[in-house]
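hi! just following up on the protien thing from before. the input was this:
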Amino acid sequence: MKLICQQKQLLEGLFTVQKAINPHNTLPILGNILLKAEGQKLYLTATNLEIAITTSLPAEVKNEGKITIPAKILVSYIGFLKEGEVEFAVEDGSTLAIKAQGSKTKLKGIAAEEFPPIPLVEKEESFTLETNTLKEAIEAIVFCCATSTTRPVLSGVYFWGKGSELRLVATDSYRLGEKIISLSEKTFSEELKSIVPARTMQEFARILAGTKEKEAEVIASKNQILFRVGLTELTSRLIEGKFPEYLQIIPTTSKTTALVSISELALGIKRVGLFARENNNNIRFLFAPKKVQITTDATEVGSEESEIEAEVEGEENQIALNGQYLLDILQTLSGEKAQVKIEGKLSPVVIFPEKPSGLTQVIMPLKV
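and the predicted 3d structure came back as:
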């Protein structure tokens, strides 16, 4: 393998693919990035066996070939080079010679044949979305995924596509987020039901945040899913199992509805939260005419009672919630105000942005 490419483009590509590498892997090859020169491009790939990220950049390829190099030293070294041409050449099958302005080095690698093959995703369902729409949808709900693997189906984001509608759903059984995206035309010939690992979603959201592309493509098969934006592809396994019938836990009626300032509610929760830490973030909310009172049981540290103005309709209602969970939700809402709906102290609380956006957030109550 022998080629010339640009340092800036190379570094951007390395930053993109290294997101797939798990620093705690036990196999040396999984800490390496695969470099493959083919046609007039340099392809970069990294994987942790759960996800794989591939991207490419233009290159003047003199000899095609491939090699894997440890990601940590490769990324660091290329980052220390000046902008300009970088020349790669493989020597003795497992050594990469690098030449750049004022620099020559040799890095020991591992033969490309030892790199795990990246599975091909056989298209069963595919669709495209605006990159900003997909990024915002992921960021709005992915934090609701379970961090425990006790119930694997809860540790991922549920992609449920039907007709011209796509729903992204996440829940850890204590909170739930659903984002409904309307597509311009009928997209799904059959129902799409895929559970994508939370880490896959987080890494792809980061890729979307750094791209200038307007659209992203999603291709799903029975066991794999592929996300493509520009020259970058992220392939991931899917989580096996059936996602819970979550719609039945979202209340369809409410006895109390409150319209409240997101920033004021967040500040009130943070103040009370200073004293609620010893109570496992158990915070009580009293929704009364024109106000919301926020309190927690007195602790050794002290006590606090916050009161904020709100437009409250319906019955006076009190409910206890995990304050940190509510703060997490408030950070995902657009606009200045949130709409909070309460059926009773034992029913889940439903939270929407003031203006309809297809986003629904749900929190399970705590004991009052």
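The CA atoms of residues 216 and 229 lie 5 Å apart.
The longest helix spans residues 262-276.
cheers
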